[in-house]
Amino acid sequence: MLRSLGFASSLAIAATVSLLSAQARSSSDRSLPMHFELRSQGPADGCADTCEKWISAAGAITADSARDFLLLAKAKNLSGATVVLDSDGGSVIGAITLGREIRKLSLNTTVGHVVDLPPGPQNEPRTALLPRADCESMCAFVLLAGIQRSVPAEARVMVHQIWLGDRRDDPTAANYSAEDLVLVQRDVGRLARYTAEMGASIDLLDLALRIPPWEPMHAMTRDELRNTKLATDETLPAAPAAVAASPAPAVSQPSPRVTDGARASPISDRRWSMVERAGTAALARRHPLTVEGEDIGSFDLVLACGEGASNYDVSYIERRRNGEQIPLPGELGKVTMRIGNASAALKVASSERRETPDELVTYASGSLPATVIASFASAGNRSIVIETESNGMVTVIRLGNTGASTSFPKLTESCGKGAGDRADLVRPKTGNYAAAQ
After folding, report:
1. Of 384, 419, 411, nearest in space to 305 by CA
2. DSSP of 56-105, one letter per residue?
3. Cβ distance 284 to 275 under 8 Å?
């Protein structure tokens, strides 16, 4: 079984590893192209003749990943080695090609992170395997290539839909051509064929295709890892109990001023635009509300002038209905809005069931500093995260800023805020998204 990857000896050197792991691994490693290294388990006197061979595979999967892997295979004897994956995912074609090369060599796979240990008496390089790592998106399909596949309890395998990489920041606002649809459907077909070829259940692909790009990636449960045959280990431990996230820090809330007037002007689901709200101008956007891809309604997010120049009022108007698998809750208990490191727990003013149509309509309001809103509306790809909680169910939706940079100056002018409150900020750095194709 792959779970005997020398974890006992790794535990013996946990204190040393903990000091080295922070230095050996940085957040930038995962955004760089995947890099392959053949490493040996250590310390040598701890595992002797049973020391494992690990192929560290960390970084983004690209079209060149399979070529780089083959270069290592030609230069080193990889027989009996285990590929250790730590990746945010990347190219569909790159992952499939890499996976097939791993399978040709009959290698095993696992999720983890390889870190260096102090050299031994003979100055030989040795490493330890840390199981706390993530294998995201297309990395899950590379993991599938192993003859034996292990996912440690501390590791996460996370999946979502494949999407065109240059349109992940704000997918509902992007335009798509017939050629784009052909590309995505072709890659879905390739993944289906590859999944069957690797001997896994098609349920793995079905699970990934449920998660739209505006939702967080789905972290697979132990049962899902076992049932989809992504993990071949038959002694998978039970999943640890979920730990509730700490509540967002409280912020001062204005009196709720949300009314049905928010519906008066058409609100776009493709871009942020100016609308009329209770006789005044506001910046608004509509977005579908989903849970693992199941459409259960929509919400409007409205930004309006706040009292004074230091903040903007935020209104959240949600219309939720029953889904095929998602029952309608009695009321919505909590709405949290996050932009970067700033957050606001919006005050739920009302959450009522309506019969025609049968839906739960919720109004919530709060405020965020003008500088935070200006940063979101500035040039570049930024997003707002909206999280709701009701009867133990959580929805998390990421909403992009398409149209905000052109409309926000009109809002500042309408609100009479000074130039210092506008989006005259340094252009933010945009995240690297690996292309789906």
Report:
1. 411
2. EEESBB-TTHHHHHHHHHHHS--TT-EEEEEB--B-HHHHHHHHHHHHHT
3. yes
Q: Give the residue carrying structure tokens 């270069």.
A: 71
DSSP code of residue 6: S
- Name residue 282's amino acid: A
Q: Which residues of the chain have pLDDT under 70?
A: 1-30, 42-49, 120-124, 234-265, 277-279, 417-437
Rounded Cα gap, residues 372 and 367, in angstroms: 10
Cis peptide bond upstream of 125, omega within 30: no
Instruction: Determine the pLDDT at residue 124.
Output: 67
Contact 79, 104 (CB under 8 A): no
What are the residues facing 125 on neighbouring strands?
none
Distances (CA, A) of 249 to 337, 343, 392: 11, 7, 20
Model-level pTM greater than 0.85?
Answer: no
Evaluate the CA torsion angle 125, 130, 136, 139 in order and state its sign: positive
Burial class (CB in 10 A: 0-12, 13-18, 19+), 416: exposed
Rg of the chain over all Cα atoms, to the nearest angstrom: 25
For residues 32 and 48, give the distance between their C-alpha atoms in angstroms, rounded to a whole number.
34
Helix (H) or strand (E) holding 12, with range, is: helix 7-12
Q: What is the pLDDT of residues 65-84, one digit of tens each?
A: 999 999 999 999 999 999 99
Single-letter code of the amino acid located at 273 = S
> Backbone phi, then psi, for 4, in 5-degree steps?
-95, 45
3-state SS class at 347? strand
Strand partners, 298: 288, 319
Smallest Cα–Cα separation from 228: which of 305, 307, 149?
Answer: 149
User: What domains, with CATH codes, occur in the chain?
Assistant: 2-227 (3.90.226.10), 260-421 (2.60.40.10)
Q: What is the reported pLDDT for 391?
A: 83
Residue 58: what pLDDT? 95
pLDDT the model gives residue 241? 42
Burial 96-131 (b: 16+ CB within 10 A, else e): bbbbebbbebebbbbbbbbbbbeeeeeeeebbbbbb
Backbone angles phi, psi at 360, to 5 degrees: -100, 120
At how many degrees (to 10) do helices 178-197 and 92-104 cross? 20
List of residues 6+ apart from 344 with CB closer than 8 A: 248, 251, 314, 336, 337, 366, 367, 368
